Structures are given as C-alpha cells and as structure tokens.
C-alpha cells in the first residue's frame, strides 16, 4: 500500500500530499460574487471511465455550499458488476487526510498547547529515548507539517501485513530502518511526519486521533459521514466502489480493504463528496484556522517552489493547487477555488498499476476543464 503524492502542471495541480500548497491563503468569500457556470458533471464522470482502467467514478460540484451537479459512471465492482455507485457514497480520501491532521495540530498551536518551533524530542521524548526518530532534537513541529524533517517514510520496499494491527510506534520502527533521504529543513515527502503529528495530537489531547478529528472538525462542520478507521480489517461503511491493484502475477485483486492502521493521520480518513466540499470551503474561508496559521499549510516550505494554481480557463474560478490523495485502487481529489466558493470533489476506483495511476491526475484536470471551460 502506497500513499503517494502526484503532481500535474497547469490549473488545479493535484497534490496527493493534500497539503493544499498554494500561492493564495484562505480568504473570505465575496458577498458580491458572480454566478459560476458549471458543465455536465454526469458527462464528466462518463468520460473519466472511458479513459480506461477506471472501474467507477463519482463526483459532485458545489457553489457557495449548494450542489449544482453530480454524476456517477462505471460500476461498484470490476467488469461492470455490482451496480452503480451513488454519488453520495463514502470513499477513501487518501492523503487529503494530511490537511485535517495538520489543521488539528495547528488548532493546538492556537490554544497555546503546542509550538511550531517545539522540538520533537521535547513533545514526544519517547521517540528519541527509544531511537525511533533520528535527530529528533533538531526536528520541529513546523518541519513535520511542511514535510521538511528528513524523516524516512515507513512505506517502502518492505511489505506490510494487510491483517496486522500496526501501532504508530511500529510504523516509526519501520521508518527507522530506512536511510535518511535529505537533511532537516529540506522538503521530502514522507508519510511518517503525519504519523508523528497524530501521536502528538493524541498525547496533548488525551484522546485518540479519530476522536479528536471528529471533535474538532467533523462534528462542528456537520460531517456526519466522515471518520477515521483504526482497525486493520475495517472497510468502508455503506455502498461504495471497490478498487483493484495487480498482485505479483499481474492479476487484478480487490484492494478495497486497505489496512487502516498503516494510514492513520497520513491518509486514513473516509468521507463523501459533499463533506469534503464542506471541509475545503470552511478551510479556505478561514473557519478552521486563522489565516496566520493556515499559511503554515498553504505556503510552500523553504526551497519548495509554489505549485501553480489558476483558473482552468479565462473568466472562470481560480482553483488552488493541491487537494488529492492516492493509493493502490483509488485516487480522490477535492479541487477548490481559492476563495472557497467552488468545489469539485471526485473519487475514482481503479484497476491499474502504479505507473498508469500516475496518469490519473491529468485525467482529473481534463474533467475539471470540461466542467468550467464549456465549449461555446
């Protein structure tokens, strides 16, 4: 299982880190905003399935919190089986989870319970004492959020047991076996940073990460169908699409029940198109964090060029960069306008290998263009 980052150029870059790296901070929506013209969402989903090796596609578009289009194409299971997937179905959001985990950590900063420049060895002394993280006395909370700690990923050549309940400490031990890829302060995408942030949140709050995400984000925003699973065999609740990935022989196998204990705050949340739109609208409009703290997420870290945002075509909404998540069997994205007015939330269940999965972000960008750049 790989939680990975994919990028694309041009409007609405899809970053599976889901850090929503953008040149524009969250803003308050204008009270005199112009109407937004939206194309045929159902047709866009049908076109995504027709690009090949997409089992099912669901998507919804929201403007100012109101659904203005929805679509569902393909099927719930491989080879046209299982019926259609409701556009309201739950799906894995992948590394979009990172924005949520970072937001909770930054709320603790706002409350004075945590500092951005606090050292990891001070906040979680056990990781230094047990030699689970190298140079823990140099790494700050800011480094973890911005992926500049240099801590290796726990995901790598070693295979993870799909049925084992891993603890965060187990994942740190796996990470410690891998070589440091960069120095502290240099950007390097590693899911281990967000396992550590989850551990910090649990220690400071006295609650599980799942409970704290619900208490601070999901419940206040009315995201009643969003949750973080915490058990290895815990699948997606309710009707949903199944993704597939090749085994060692190249045969496509159902990848629906990914091991939730290997994802956690790095990529484990399950949600819906509507509720991901709710979250992104609230985040972009400053209702999750004040702008000064949200910038820790939205601004690129030192040495990292801003991802390009912009409108898919002239005269249409300017979309922020970022907003995607991916693992074997699925890709999901919530593309949002910089002012938080417009969201396009989409989930694709796939039957393809990692190499072909790298083409999916460009397909989603084409869908975005079809919705906001209608042919006259």
Protein described:
There is one protein chain. By secondary structure, this protein is an alpha+beta fold. It contains 13 helices and nine strands. The protein has a five-stranded antiparallel β-sheet with strand order 2-1-9-8-7, sandwiched between helices. Strands 3-6 form a two-stranded antiparallel ribbon. Strand 1 (54-63) and strand 2 form a beta hairpin. The chain is globular. The protein starts with 40 loop residues before the first helix and ends with a helix.
Could you name the key traits of this structure?
two-stranded antiparallel ribbon, 9 strands, 376 residues, alpha+beta, 5-stranded antiparallel sheet, 13% strand
Give the count of helical stretches: 13
Instruction: Give the biggest sheet.
Output: 5 strands, antiparallel
In what range is the share of β-strand residues?
5-15%
Strand order of the largest sheet: 2-1-9-8-7
The overall pLDDT, averaged over residues, is 90
Radius of gyration over C-alpha positions, nearest whole angstrom: 19 Å
Tell how many strands the DSSP assignment holds. Answer: 9
Structural class, from secondary structure content?
A: alpha+beta
The SSE order reads: HEEEHHHHHHHEEHEHHEEEHH
- How far is it from the N-terminal to the C-terminal residue, by CA? 43 Å
Helix share, percent = 25-40%
Question: How do the helices and strands line up, and which of them pair or pack?
Answer:
Layout: H1 41-50, E1 54-63, E2 66-74, E3 91-92, H2 97-110, H3 120-123, H4 125-129, H5 141-146, H6 168-176, H7 192-205, H8 209-218, E4 244-246, E5 252-254, H9 264-267, E6 270-271, H10 273-284, H11 291-298, E7 324-327, E8 330-336, E9 342-350, H12 354-357, H13 360-372
Antiparallel strand pairs: 1-2, 1-9, 3-6, 4-5, 7-8, 8-9
Helix pairs in contact: 1-13, 2-7, 6-7
């Amino acid at each position: 299982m790989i939680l990975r980052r994919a990028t694309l150029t041009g409007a609405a870059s899809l970053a599976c880190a889901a850090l929503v790296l953008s040149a524009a901070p969250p803003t308050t929506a204008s009270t005199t905003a112009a109407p937004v013209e939206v194309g045929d969402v159902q047709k866009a989903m049908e076109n995504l399935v027709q690009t090949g090796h997409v089992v099912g596609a669901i998507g919804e578009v929201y403007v100012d919190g109101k659904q203005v289009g929805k679509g569902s194409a393909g099927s719930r299971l491989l080879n046209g089986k299982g019926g259609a997937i409701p556009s309201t179905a739950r799906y894995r959001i992948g590394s979009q989870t990172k924005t949520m985990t970072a937001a909770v950590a930054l709320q603790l900063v706002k409350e004075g319970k945590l500092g951005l420049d606090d050292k990891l060895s001070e906040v979680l002394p056990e990781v230094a004492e047990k030699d689970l993280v190298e140079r823990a006395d140099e790494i700050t909370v800011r480094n973890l959020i911005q992926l500049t700690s240099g801590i290796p990923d726990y995901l790598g050549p070693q295979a993870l047991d799909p049925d084992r309940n891993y603890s965060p400490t187990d994942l740190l031990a796996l990470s410690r076996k891998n070589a440091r890829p960069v120095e502290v302060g240099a950007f390097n995408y590693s899911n281990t940073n967000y396992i550590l942030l989850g551990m910090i949140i649990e220690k400071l709050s006295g609650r599980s990460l799942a409970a704290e995400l619900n208490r601070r984000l999901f419940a206040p925003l009315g995201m009643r169908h969003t949750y973080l699973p915490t058990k290895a065999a815990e699948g997606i609740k309710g009707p949903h699409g199944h993704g597939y990935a090749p085994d060692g022989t190249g045969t496509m196998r159902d990848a629906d029940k990914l091991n939730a204990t290997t994802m956690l705050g790095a990529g484990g949340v399950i949600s819906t198109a509507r509720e991901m739109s709710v979250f992104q609208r609230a985040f972009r409009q400053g209702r999750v964090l004040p702008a000064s703290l949200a910038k820790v997420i939205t601004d690129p870290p030192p040495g990292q060029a801003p991802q390009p945002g912009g409108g898919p075509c002239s005269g249409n909404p300017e979309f922020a960069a970022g907003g995607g998540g991916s693992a074997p069997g699925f890709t999901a994205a919530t593309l949002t306008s910089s002012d938080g007015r417009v969201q396009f939330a989409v989930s694709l269940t796939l039957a393809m290998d990692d190499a072909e999965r790298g083409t999916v972000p460009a397909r989603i960008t084409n869908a975005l263009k079809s919705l906001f750049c209608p042919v006259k």
